[in-house]
Write a structure and sequence with these properties.
Layout: H1 2-11, H2 14-17, H3 19-30, H4 35-43, H5 48-73, H6 84-108, H7 110-137, H8 140-143, H9 151-174, H10 179-190, H11 194-208, H12 214-240
Helix pairs in contact: 1-3, 1-9, 3-5, 3-12, 4-5, 4-7, 4-10, 4-12, 5-6, 5-10, 6-7, 6-11, 7-12, 9-10, 9-12, 11-12
C-alpha cells in the first residue's frame, strides 16, 4: 500500500506540488488494518477470523513498520523530517496496549469476546466517523482551498483504496487462495486504520510544519472514502468471488 501511494502520489503530482498530502498518503497506507476491515468482512461474508487475525498481526508489526515505511518513502523530501520516536510512542499507547488487553480478555472469556465483536466493531466505526466529522468541521477553512483539496485529491484517495483492494484480490487468487478468504484479504489490504493515522498526523503536524493539516485531512478523507470503496467492493465480490453457503456457516 505505501508503494502504491508513492506511485499514485508521484503520478498525480502531489510529491512536488503538495508534499504534505504525499506524506499523508504514505502515512495512511503505512498504518495497519482496523475495525473497518473487520466489519466490512463480516458484511461481505468473508473469513472474519482471518480478517481479525490479519488486523492483529499488522497492528503488532506497525510499531516497527509504520515509522520505518514513513521514513523510507519520505526520505530525501526537502524540509520533511519524520519524528520516528513520537510515531512509535503513539502506536504503542493507542494500539499495542489496547490490543494486548483485548487479546487477554478474549483468552479468558472467549464466548463473551466473540459475541461482543460485532457490537464493539460497530462502536469503533461510529467513534471513527465522529472523529473524522469533528476533524473536518474544525478544518473547514482548509477545504476551501480547492486547488489543494480538489477533484484530483478526492479521485486519488478513492483510487488508492480501490487499488489496494484490487491488488489484495488479484494477488490472493494468483497464489490460489479460496474466495472466502480472498474477500477478507482484499478488504484488509485496502482499508486502513484511519483513526491512528489522523492521531499521528495531529501530533506531528506542528513539528513538521504542516500548517494546512494536509496529513490529517488526507487520512480523514481516506477514512470516509474507504467506506464507499468497501461497499462497492462487497457488491463486486458477489459475481467475482462467489462463496458457497457452507463456507460461511460457521460465521453466522
Amino acid at each position: 500500500m505505501p508503494f502504491l501511494a508513492m506511485c499514485v502520489g508521484r503520478l498525480f503530482g502531489f510529491y512536488e506540488q503538495y508534499p504534505f498530502i504525499f506524506v499523508g498518503m504514505i502515512l495512511i497506507t503505512a498504518t495497519p488494518g482496523g475495525v473497518t476491515s473487520n466489519l466490512m468482512t463480516y458484511y461481505a461474508k468473508g473469513d472474519l477470523a482471518l480478517s481479525i487475525s490479519l488486523t492483529s498481526f499488522s497492528t503488532v508489526m506497525s510499531i516497527v513498520f509504520t515509522p520505518l515505511l514513513l521514513a523510507f518513502y519520505c526520505a530525501g523530501m526537502p524540509e520533511i523530517a519524520i519524528p520516528v520516536k513520537l510515531v512509535v510512542q503513539t502506536i504503542l499507547v493507542l494500539v499495542i496496549i489496547p490490543l494486548v488487553v483485548g487479546m487477554a480478555i478474549r483468552g479468558k472469556w472467549q464466548t463473551f469476546a466473540e459475541k461482543a465483536t460485532p457490537f464493539l466493531s460497530a462502536l469503533g466505526i461510529i467513534a471513527l466517523l465522529v472523529l473524522i466529522v469533528a476533524g473536518v468541521l474544525s478544518n473547514l477553512d482548509a477545504f476551501a482551498d480547492t486547488d489543494r483539496q480538489g477533484v484530483k485529491f478526492y479521485t486519488t484517495i478513492f483510487l488508492l483504496t480501490m487499488l489496494g483492494m484490487l491488488f489484495g484480490l488479484g494477488f490472493s487468487k494468483l497464489v490460489g487462495i479460496n474466495n472466502y478468504q480472498t474477500r477478507a484479504i482484499s478488504l484488509e489490504t485496502g482499508l486502513r486504520n484511519s483513526a491512528l493515522a489522523m492521531t499521528i498526523a495531529l501530533l506531528i503536524q506542528d513539528s513538521m510544519g504542516d500548517f494546512y493539516s494536509s496529513m490529517f485531512i488526507t487520512s480523514g478523507m481516506f477514512g470516509l472514502i474507504m467506506y464507499l470503496a468497501g461497499i462497492i467492493s462487497i457488491f463486486i465480490y458477489k459475481p467475482l468471488l462467489p462463496v458457497a453457503t457452507g463456507e460461511t456457516v460457521h460465521q453466522e
